[in-house]
Amino acid sequence: MGRRRKLTDPLPREAEMFLEMLVAERGVALNTLESYQRDLGDFSGFAKSQCTVPAQASADLIRKYLKHMDSTGMAARTQARRLSALRQFFRFLYAERLRPDDPTTVIDSPKIGRALPKYLSEAEVDILLQCAAEHPGAEGKRLVALMEILYATGLRVSELVGLPLRAMSRDGLMLMVRGKGEKDRMVPLSEPASDAIQAYMEVRDRFAPKGSKGSLYMFPSRAKQGFLTRARFAQILKELSVEAGLDPRRVSPHVLRHSFASHLLAHGVDLRALQQMLGHADISTTQIYTHVLDERLKQLVNSVHPLALGH
């Protein structure tokens, strides 16, 4: 437990035991561990102000804590995250028989409004692709391949950078992608994407680690994992957006995934087909893009409708 930063007020022993379990059994990342530590520390301070300790908290005390967070103007998403931490904490106490019940089972989660995905216009994506095409040499060919694949398929950035060589079909028109839950899906490639991959393959070996007998990845790199990292690609994309005259804060691999989905839906692609291409397990996840279109239509009506202009 030496990885964690110390709090001003030490956590109760039960909370320390819970954090130790997260490290030993779940191997949580340091940032995640510190997030749990902060959340439990905040609840511990509130419980102390109510003359009790976290391990003995009742459902009424937890509801009072939620009201307290809401009264401070805390975002519903942050409240939900803290309640999630408490649920896991009390589930742990119950499983370890450190208390006879789990008070969070009767607590409702704060309602969170689902944020609409951010996306670029088709013209903005075109500008990015044109700017990428102006980059010379091997770096330029790799950049064009990455951009064309991403916009043609809507892959998650982890799926894109980690593509194996064998992912592309023999005719160069499809990609076999392994997504979340180790589920495979076939994704069609556009003609520009297929052409960009073919051009990039001529220079691909220049990015492979020296001394290697041949990388198994489409986008090899000298990075530890053997392929282009997500962070490096995100950085390249930010640099490209600046060159293209776009606000880099609006451009990311995930924004391009959203742009792919929004543009296809706007051009009449079936929602089920889009779900398959995006690799969504539940179509309700894909349906959020219909809200993007609804919002776009509202903005269009408000900007051009004669009655709207008259107000």
UniProtKB/TrEMBL annotation:
Keywords: Cell cycle, Cell division, Chromosome partition, Cytoplasm, DNA integration, DNA recombination, DNA-binding. It comes from the Bacteria. It is found in: Cytoplasm. Pfam families: Phage_int_SAM_1, Phage_integrase. One of its GO terms (biological process) is chromosome segregation. Belongs to the 'phage' integrase family. XerC subfamily. PANTHER family: PHAGE INTEGRASE-RELATED, TYROSINE RECOMBINASE XERD. This is Tyrosine recombinase XerC.
